[in-house]
Amino acid sequence: MTKTLLSFGHGYSAQALSALLPDDWRIIGTTRNEDKAAQLMSEGIEPRIWPGADLIPALNAATHLLISAGPTEQGDPVLTELRAEIEIRRDQFEWVGYLSTTGVYGDHDGGWVDETTPLTPSTKRGQMRVDAEAEWQSLDLPLHIFRLAGIYGPGRGPFAKVRNGTARRIIKQGQVFSRIHVEDIAQILAASIDQPNAGAIYNLCDDDPAPPEDVIAHAAELLGMPIPPAQDFETADMTPMARSFYAESKKVRNDRIKSELGIKLKYPDYRVGLAALLASDQQTR
To answer: Do you know which SUPFAM superfamilies this protein is assigned to (predicted)?
Structure first.
């Protein structure tokens, strides 16, 4: 039987997973716009403009579901429209993956969290993710929840901002973030598909939580450019969205992806990841 992945919100992480799946997989990905649909088609993905398209034929074919579409104030968009259709087909799904965020843990003053840490989000976005996780968990599905740290990778690194002079080293005492390279997200999802464990929850992050200003400084050093000046968080001119990212400080443990899925991270810290990004960038420039 052909394996068919139906991917809701087929974006950055889902595209990286698609590149790892065997050639005989059928991949159907939803997107909101025509330009993205054309890009997906060029990559061998069957695009569906959604909301809008009739997804019942895709659901009928699906053996695997990946949900990257984020929740709204109205709830999870996939379940809002398709909950009943998904529930009645639950026996046909071998694996369901939901991409969440480590924001569900809230602020821990720079302390460590793992998958057993209580969910105490401190932002509205984090609370919507908690609610969406619970909504998916209420269904009788082979569900796997992946809580992603800050994502970086090709096209999503700090180099462009450092080069054009817009990078800022925002200093907030004790602030620390975890992050994850998109290729490591992809290999973790692929490993889970190969080793389903219904009900599992995994943190997706590297081994080295670090202050964001250290990452910017290292990127500048790699480029041989001056390190951007430090700006104090309290007085820095920031959008409410940008400022909200500093509302939480924590270090995220990733032991479970290693012990249960046998993962060896390709990019165990930001130094390795940035060096690889720069090498790739220089090859394509």
So the answer is: NAD(P)-binding Rossmann-fold domains
The domains located in the chain, with CATH, are: 4-151+180-206+250-266 (3.40.50.720)
59's tokens = 């659901």
| pLDDT(275) > 70 | yes
Backbone angles phi, psi at 233, to 5 degrees: -55, -40
What would the mean pLDDT of 67-95 be, rounded to a whole number?
Answer: 97
Contacts of 169-172 with C-beta under 8 Å, sequence gap 24+, read 169/212, 169/213, 169/216, 169/217, 169/227, 169/228, 169/229, 169/230, 169/231, 170/212, 170/213, 170/231, 170/233, 170/236, 170/238, 170/246, 171/213, 171/230, 171/231, 171/232, 171/233, 172/233, 172/246, 172/249
At 227, which amino acid appears? I
Three-state secondary structure call for residue 246 = helix
**Distance from first CA to last CA of the chain, Å, rounded?**
42
**If residue 7 lies in a helix (H) or strand (E), which one and from where to where?**
strand 4-8
As a whole number of angstroms, the distance between CA 157 and CA 153 comes to: 6
Average pLDDT over residues 265-282: 94
Q: Is 2 helix (H, G, I), strand (E, B) or coil?
A: coil
Place of tokens 């991949």: 27
CB 175 within 8 A of CB 243: no
pTM recorded for the entire structure? 0.97
Helix-helix angle 212-223:270-284, to 10 degrees? 40
